[in-house]
Amino acid sequence: MALKDMKSLLNGLLHIHRELNSIAEQKTAILKTGDVKALDALMLKENEHVKTLMELEEVRNGTSTLTMSELIEQAVPSEKEQLEALQYELSKEYMLLKERNELNQQLIHQSLQFVNMSLNMFMPEPEKVTYSRPQAKEYAGAGSFSLFDSKA
Question: 54-66 as b/e, with b when 16 or more CB fall inside 10 Å?
Fold first, then answer.
């Protein structure tokens, strides 16, 4: 693949990562407010961007087996600086996206914990599902405990 095409592809990857970072930032705000409808709409938009990102990554993997470092080593000095800047920007955007996604995951986990706690508060204690003899309450004060109720 020509270096010009590779730079164009890397710029596309960088653009998609920036869009995903923007979406992740919006998702954090929505998670804090608890607006489920807005979250659903945003996740649809995010899925479209992820699909585009995967397509670009497939094209990159299919056209070149070189890593970014190898590509930079093979480039002429004027191109090296541009590729190094692209590599830096991509890694920065990737790390930022990773951090935001971890924060959003923690927010979702806390929301689920709150929902579970709320449900547990409103749910009555379940009745015992094991069998007990009706007369067992009369004999409970005697201190005897039997696993089997049989006569030999």
Answer: eebeeebeeebee
Contact 34, 8 (CB under 8 A): no
Burial readout 73-98 (b: 16 or more C-beta within 10 A, e: otherwise): eebeeebeeebeebbebbeebeebbe
pLDDT in tens, 105-148: 999 999 889 888 888 888 766 666 676 666 655 544 455 555 55
CB 13 within 8 A of CB 86: no
- The DSSP call for residue 128 is P
Q: How many residues does the chain have?
A: 152
Question: For the whole prediction, is pTM greater than 0.85?
Answer: no
- DSSP letter for each residue of 18-82: HHHHHHHHHHHHHHHHT-HHHHHHHHHHHHHHHHHHHHHHHHHHHH----HHHHHHHS-HHHHHH
